[in-house]
């Protein structure tokens, strides 16, 4: 058995592995590689002793077929297993340990297991992917993110949207010789949807500054996007910037006068705007008699 090595270390998390049997160092997994793994001797505990496994984990819960695509996991535990796999060679067997603590240093979860990387299907590096494959991957991550948000896994959904956006960024600059105008438009539309979805996630945690930035980015590409105007309005309200919020919601209503959410938000804002106008009128009256 080899010496234990640290894969990742933070205050709240430590990931270690110890090689039992080395593998072929010329074949290692990276982004989008298909891995076949075998898990045995899995033990899970917390500060109170033996405990149940993290319920969102796909790798450590049944049914699991042993197949892992690097970069396609959502649970924090599964993503950490991906980190371990990327530090393994095809054919390698190791003992892995994943330890999680809270902000006070108390043990929340400790997983010990034996991992065998049975097979690795090598893929191209992302830098070598075609624009079509990058776009396809972005759509995949976006759709998965939407489902995670529906399942109330907001943080995991946001991570998927961010990953999709990175795929689109990798396409730039758009080569007009290989991407026609219609495809370029689809890429822009997907980018706008991702900015909107990420803004929605940020609003769930009242991160109004981040929401404002994301909506502004969406509106840069699509100035008449009602969702972006509505969500930026909410962000402005959260930042107590009522006049800016009013301007956005009025723009949204000018584009779609029947949008119920915008109508409700305008009615909610109206007393604030009336008070601002009233206070302004008082100031002017004092200044000019």
UniProtKB/TrEMBL annotation:
Database matches in PANTHER family: FK506-BINDING PROTEIN-LIKE (PTHR46512:SF10), PEPTIDYLPROLYL ISOMERASE (PTHR46512)
Protein name from the UniProt record: BDBT FKBP like N-terminal domain-containing protein
TPR repeats: 226-259
Domain of life according to the entry: Eukaryota
Keywords assigned: TPR repeat
Listed InterPro entries: FKBP4/5/8-like (IPR050754), TPR-like_helical_dom_sf (IPR011990), TPR_rpt (IPR019734)
Organism encoding this protein: Euphydryas editha (Edith's checkerspot)
This protein's record includes keyword Nucleus: no
């Amino acid at each position: 058995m080899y010496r234990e090595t640290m894969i990742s270390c933070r205050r709240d998390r430590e990931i270690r592995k110890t090689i039992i049997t080395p593998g072929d160092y010329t074949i290692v997994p990276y982004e989008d590689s298909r891995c076949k793994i075998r898990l045995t001797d899995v033990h899970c505990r917390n500060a109170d002793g033996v405990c149940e496994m993290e319920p969102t984990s796909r790798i450590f819960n049944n049914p699991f077929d042993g197949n892992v695509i690097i970069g396609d996991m959502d649970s924090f535990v599964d993503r950490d297993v991906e980190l371990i796999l990327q530090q393994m060679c095809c054919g390698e067997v190791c003992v892995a340990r994943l330890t999680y603590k809270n902000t006070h240093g108390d043990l929340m979860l400790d997983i010990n297991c034996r991992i065998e990387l049975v097979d690795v299907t090598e893929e191209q590096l992302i830098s070598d992917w075609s624009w079509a494959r990058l776009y396809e991957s972005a759509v995949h991550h976006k759709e998965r993110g939407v489902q995670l948000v529906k399942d109330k896994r907001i943080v995991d959904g946001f991570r998927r949207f961010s990953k999709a956006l990175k795929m689109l960024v990798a396409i730039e600059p758009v080569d007009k010789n290989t991407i026609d105008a219609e495809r370029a438009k689809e890429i822009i539309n997907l980018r706008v949807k991702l900015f909107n979805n990420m803004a929605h996630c940020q609003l769930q945690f009242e991160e109004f500054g981040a929401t404002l930035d994301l909506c502004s980015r969406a509106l840069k590409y699509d100035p008449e996007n009602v969702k972006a105007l509505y969500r930026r309005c909410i962000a402005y309200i959260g930042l107590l910037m009522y006049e800016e919020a009013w301007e956005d919601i009025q723009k949204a209503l000018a584009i779609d006068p029947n949008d119920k959410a915008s109508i409700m938000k305008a009615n909610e804002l109206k007393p604030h705007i009336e008070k601002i106008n009233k206070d302004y009128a008082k100031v002017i009256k004092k200044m000019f008699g």
